Each structure stands twice: as C-alpha cells, then as structure tokens.
Amino acid sequence: MTNSGEYVRGFTNYIILSILGKFDSYGYEMTKIIESVSKQNIQLNEATLYTALKRLLADGKISSYMGKNKKGMNRRYYQITPQGKKELKSFRKDWVMIENTLSSLVGGDFKYIREN
Fold first, then answer.
1. What is the DSSP letter of 10?
2. Helix crossing, 12-22 with 82-107: angle to 10°?
3. Residue 36's pLDDT band (cuts 50, 70, 90)
4. Which residues have CB under 8 Å from 16's CB, separation 6+?
5. What does the alpha-carbon distance between residue 26 and residue 29 come to, in Å, rounded to a whole number?
6. Quick check: 22 and 96 in contact, CB under 8 A?
7. 37 touches 44 (CB < 8 A)
8. Which of 3, 55, 103, 112 is deepest in the core (most CB within 10 A)?
9. Interior CA angle at 81 toward 11 and 69, to 5°?
10. CB contact at 8 A, 69 and 28
C-alpha cells in the first residue's frame, strides 16, 4: 500500500493507545504489531511513531519506564495511563460512526439531494 502511513496519521495515537491497552510495549515492537496485524499493508516510519509517543507522553496519556525485552536488551517501555484509557474509551464509542461514515463517503455509497 503506497504511503500507508498517510492513511492512518490521524489515528496513530489511538493505534498506540490500543496496543498499550493490551500490554506495555516498546517502539520497535509496536511497529511490528502494526505491520503484522495489517498484513504488512500499514507501516509507520520511526519519526511518525516517536513523534506520537512524545505527544502522548506530554499529554499524560502514556508513561514510560526502562525494562528488558525477551532477549535481555534494555528498552524504553510505554504504558497507558488512566487518562489514556479514558481517551481510548471515548474514541472507541465514536469509532463505529467514524468507520461507517468514511466507508460511505470514500466508497461512494451515500445519497445526497442537492439543493438548486
């Protein structure tokens, strides 16, 4: 998928919060999760991911700590905060409407009566 990062840019925060809602993770692992779940169709570049992580940290929606991965390497792990959980819950309430609206608009499956 060409420029796949562009398609998800507005949803990057919620993708990260969704991953961290399941378990604490580090940047590289999150990119691998996104690629795996999307069957390699969505790839976030490092700059996009780390900019979003920085923004979420500054907003208090995630926090970070140092830990070791399965191979014993030091990694900065991120975890969702109560504020982040609240934000994610709110977004998920709106998600069905957003998904349906975008599908109708982009798919051309809408009706509109023009006023003359």
1. G
2. 130
3. very high
4. 30, 49, 52, 53, 56, 62, 78
5. 5
6. no
7. no
8. 55
9. 85
10. no
* C-alpha to C-alpha distance for 70 and 39, rounded to whole angstroms: 23
Please give the radius of gyration of the chain, using alpha carbons only, rounded to the nearest integer: 17
Per-residue H/E/C for 19-85 = HHHHCCEEHHHHHHHHHHHCCCCCCCCHHHHHHHHHHHHHCCCEEEEEEECCCCCEEEEEEECHHHH
CATH number assigned to the domain with residue range 4-107, chosen from the 4 options 2.40.50.140, 1.10.10.10, 3.30.420.40, 1.20.58.100: 1.10.10.10
pLDDT in the model for residue 89: 95
For the chain, which residues make up each domain, given as ranges? Answer: 4-107
